[in-house]
Design a protein that fits this description.
Mean pLDDT: 89
Distance between the termini: 62 Å
Number of domains: 1
Bound molecules: nickel (II) ion
Low-confidence stretches: 3-8
Order of helices and strands: HHEEHEEEHEH
Structural class: alpha+beta
Helix content: 10-25%
CATH class: Alpha Beta
Shape: globular
Strand content: 25-35%
Largest sheet: 6 strands, antiparallel
CATH topology: Peptide Deformylase
CATH superfamily: Peptide deformylase
CATH architecture: Alpha-Beta Complex
Length: 202
């Protein structure tokens, strides 16, 4: 669009500076962007990646999610954000184990996962792209992951338990996979309002 040099450009509303982040629309199961393989990010420090990450964090927090992958907001790039709060870790763990089971809000660009122990562990998963449902998914419980942070720094961690689960779930999104495709028993794909029946049964 051309500019009319006879008029001064209107200043953007102050709100645009005070609240630079935006809540993005989340793609739901069935949208092709969720089934595609996402592309690597050429430059993790690029301003548009920082903007994307800020918006993903805002969107994840607004939706009360533990993690979010860029394809879920219609951007087919290898970027995930996640958190594994310490209160979700088993209270009986040692300090080192607690550390591996939890992590602060983390941005991971071009992530890679190495399985340290393939022994599977089951857990209930949900997904912002599969609203209202929960599924019992078995995944390796002990992994190492590596990727780049928003400053271009290398992030490398060992993860267990919920921490390992959320990282694997989010990285699956980058390869076009949703958690139902990881389930061994689809009888354990349920509405979240019914999960109490399973918890009572142990
Ligand atoms: Ni998900």
């Amino acid at each position: 669009m051309g500019e009319n040099p006879g008029f001064p450009l209107a200043a953007p509303p102050a709100r645009a500076y005070l609240c630079p982040m935006a809540i993005l629309k989340i793609a739901r199961m069935g949208h092709p962007v969720l089934a595609a393989k996402a592309r690597p990010v050429p430059d993790p420090r690029a301003p548009e990646i920082r903007r994307l990450v800020n918006d993903m964090v805002e969107t994840m927090i607004d939706a009360n999610g533990a993690g979010l992958a860029a394809p879920q907001v219609h951007v087919p790039l290898r970027v995930v954000v996640f958190q594994a709060p310490g209160e979700r870790a088993d209270p009986g763990l040692s300090e080192q184990e607690k550390f591996d089971h939890s992590c602060p809000l983390t941005v991971l660009i071009n992530p890679e996962i190495a399985v340290l122990d393939p022994a599977p562990e089951g857990g209930w998963e949900g997904c912002l792209s599969v609203p209202g449902l929960r599924g019992w998914v078995e995944r390796p419980a002990h992994i190492r992951y590596r990727g780049f942070g928003i400053e271009g720094e290398t992030i490398e961690r060992v993860a267990r338990g919920f921490h390992a689960r959320v990282v694997q779930h989010e990285c699956d999104h980058l390869d076009g996979r949703l958690y139902p495709s990881r389930m061994a028993d689809l009888n354990r794909l349920i509405f979240e309002s019914e999960i109490r029946h399973f918890q009572q049964a142990g």
